[in-house]
Amino acid sequence: MEPFVNEDNGKIAGIVSYFSIIGWLIAYFALYQNNKTSLASYQLRQTLLFHLVSMVLRFVVATILGLVWLSTGAFSVYSLMDILYIALLIIWLIGLIGAINSEKKPIPFIGDAAQRTFSSI
Q: Which residues 6+ apart lie within 8 Å of 29 measured at CB?
């Protein structure tokens, strides 16, 4: 049985990849492997680095803020975590809108690095 191949799969793979690392895995293995398009490759590279960077940032910032909170008892340091979440949300939205519009527009801060780092995708 031949897999479903469609020109829109590149766009769909790009959009799905923005919805968590699980979405990225679904986009890569279910939508991209049998229908490789330049748009899907572009978006998959961006979202892979975005997900990796956001996971590392969340872990590092949460650890540092947790240590500060334990040593000082100041709850206000957690507002810094909110700023990080808002920044990641804005970057995510910019990338998602680009994927929806079928644009190869790099997401802020990491888009160009993603294209170089994951050029094999």
A: none
pTM, two decimal places: 0.83
Cα atoms in the Cβ-side hemisphere of radius 13 Å centred on 79:
3
Cβ neighbour number for residue 58 with a 10 Å cutoff: 14
User: Which residues are CB-contacts of 104 (< 8 A; sequence separation ≥ 6)?
Assistant: 38, 39, 42, 98
Measured between alpha carbons, how far is 102 from 96 in angstroms, rounded to an integer?
10
Q: Tens digit of pLDDT for each residue in 2-32?
A: 444 455 768 999 999 999 999 999 999 988 8
- Two structure tokens written together for 80: 């810094």
Provide the pLDDT for residue 73: 67
